[in-house]
Amino acid sequence: MVVIRSLYSVILNGIYFTGAVAWPLQPLDLAQHDPRTETQIPMTNATPVTLVADESFNFNVLAVLSGAPYEGADIGEVLVAANNIIEGDFESFHDAFNDLANRVHAQAIAIDDKKHPLSARNLFFKSAAYYRAADAYLHGNWSDPRIMTLWQKQAEDYNKAIALLHQPGERIEIQADNFTVPAIFFKTSCTGKRPTLILGQGYDGAMEDLYHVMGKAAVERGINVIVYEGPGQPTVRRYQNLGFIPEWERVISPVVSYLLTREDVDADKIALMGYSFGGFLAPRAAAFEHRLAAVIAIDGIYDFGESILSQFGEGPAELIRAGNKEAVDELGKQIQATANAPTTVRWGLNQGEWTFKTQSAYDYAVQAQRYTLKGVVDKIRAPVFIGEAESDIFFAGQATKLANELGDLATYHLFPNLDGAGEHCQIGASVMMNQVSLDWLEDVFAKTQ
Ligand SMILES: *[C@@H]1O[C@H](CO)[C@@H](O)[C@H](O)[C@H]1NC(C)=O
Ligand SMILES: *[C@@H]1O[C@H](CO)[C@@H](O)[C@H](O)[C@H]1NC(C)=O
Questions:
Q1: Nearest CA owner, ligand 1 atom 12
Q2: Is 112 in the pocket of ligand 2 (CB under 6 A)?
Q3: Which atom of ligand 1 sits closest to the CA of residue 141?
Q4: How deeply is 90 buried, as exposed, middle or buried, from its count of CB atoms within 10 A (0-12, 13-18, 19+)?
Q5: Is the C-beta atom of 179 inside 6 A of ligand 2?
Q6: Among 177, 178, 242, which residue has the most ligand 2 atoms within 8 Å of its CB, making it the best to mutate?
Q7: What residues pair up with 171 in beta bridges, in sequence order?
Q8: What's the gap in Å between 178 CA and the centre of ligand 2?
Q9: 141 CB under 6 A from ligand 1?
Q10: Mind telling me which residue stretches traverse the membrane in this protein (predicted)?
Q11: Which of 82, 128, 309, 339 might form a disulfide with 154, Cβ 3.0–4.6 angstroms?
Q12: What is the mean pLDDT of the chain?
């Protein structure tokens, strides 16, 4: 969910933001180019209603709501919280979700979980999700103590929730070369060796979210699920102090090796899903880890560095290519210090620097160039489902590129605006996303007898 919009050039020319002059941009309305709408229902507006004026906040509120079909949220209380968020005000986003999380947490601990285990689980899952949401905009200041305290709270509530699942979730630490991979295993109720899906996040999400994104949907289909985090991702960044690494097979191979030690995992049916920036990380790992039977990229990314440069905008991209560290860093610092700079831009930089563990915008952009499938894509052997969101504002064009490079191994699927599935990562359309991608996965597994 990376975003650095091309507004740097505006600042470069000495013009400062004065609030939402050209902001928020309306999501690209491609409805009139959709042949179905042209021939059948030409007046249909395929743009979702805006919940919060601030584009970035709107996206993240929708991301929380998106967990509702899978125990991650209740719609009304999130809409009430959303109405307390002030455009461009990061603290207001924290406060709205932190207050909600505290309220739901109080309801959760008031329940006798022996008498009402399902209700307690529902509430703990929700309070945990809301504590995570409260953290989303805090990474601009690395010493903000809330980065750690909110994470502790979400993990504690989440642990209570997963202990109350019919098959309790299991927290695991898997040893990698010189770091550990935290993971949670969710077992299906089916007996014997089962197909297993590894779920991984991207640039900002947490492994805990993934149960509400795809995990529960997979478990309900008789597929075991393991969610994990690697360097740069929430717990590894916090507790092992590690930023992203491009060699994602260093994270995935130990997870696959661990799965092969389990009695309940079918060794021939292990798949990997990457979400958001994970749409790069998963195919990257699959280029070097050939024990995977299938890969799902939600959505596909071929060259992360290229999209970061285009998000920086042409002027700054030129400065980056010219190696002008000083100018790019100065620009980055200016934006981070400008309270009314667009949230999307300010958040994208804060989050990018935090997860790549650098205080330099230039260094972040340069590091990002190493995250490409160029030169390794032809090492992938597993079939890959490649989603593309019709209105993906972060990675436009990347999914198509990956599908073209993969050729016969790719199954490309466009998620359209008209179905409400055109946002980055199919935010707001998780049921449809799971239907399409997991049906594909079940069909691949069925052929792997
Ligand atoms: C970052 O947070 C710490 C701890 O709350 C605080 O002492 C410090 O002043 C903050 N730094 C900035 C630049 O806001
Ligand atoms: C971890 O291992 C990688 C490669 O094996 C190496 O590049 C890196 O420096 C190591 N990091 C630490 C902290 O030892």
A1: 141
A2: no
A3: 1
A4: buried
A5: no
A6: 178
A7: 184
A8: 6
A9: yes
A10: 7-25
A11: 128
A12: 91
Of the pLDDT bands very low, low, confident and very high (cuts 50, 70, 90), residue 40 is: low
Indicate the pTM of the whole model: 0.91
Per residue, the 3-state secondary structure of the chain, as one string, reads CCCCCCCHHHHHCCCCCCCCCCCCCCCCCCHHHCHHHHHCCCCCCCCCCCCCCCHHHHHHHHHHHCCHHHCCCCHHHHHHHHCCCCCCCHHHHHHHHHHHHHHHHHHHHCCCCCCCHHHHHHHHHHHHHHHHHHHCCCCCCCCCCHHHHHHHHHHHHHHHHHHCCCCCCEEEEEECCCCEEEEEEECCCCCCCEEEEEEECCCCCCCCHHHHHHHHHHHHCCCEEEEECCCCCHHHHHHCCCCCCCCCHHHHHHHHHHHHCCCCEEEEEEEEEEECCHHHHHHHHHHHCCCCCEEEEECCCCEHHHHHHHHHCHHHHHHHHCCCHHHHHHHHHHHHHCCCCCHHHHHHHHHHHHHCCCCCHHHHHHHHCCCECCCCHHHCCCCEEEEEECCCCCCCCHHHHHHHHHHHHEEEEEECHHHCCCCHHHCCCHHHHHHHHHHHHHHHHHHCC
pLDDT digit string (tens) for 318-341?
Answer: 999 999 999 999 999 999 999 889
Give tens-digit pLDDT for 190-234. 999 999 999 999 999 999 999 999 999 999 999 999 999 999 999
Q: What percent of the chain has pLDDT over 90?
A: 87
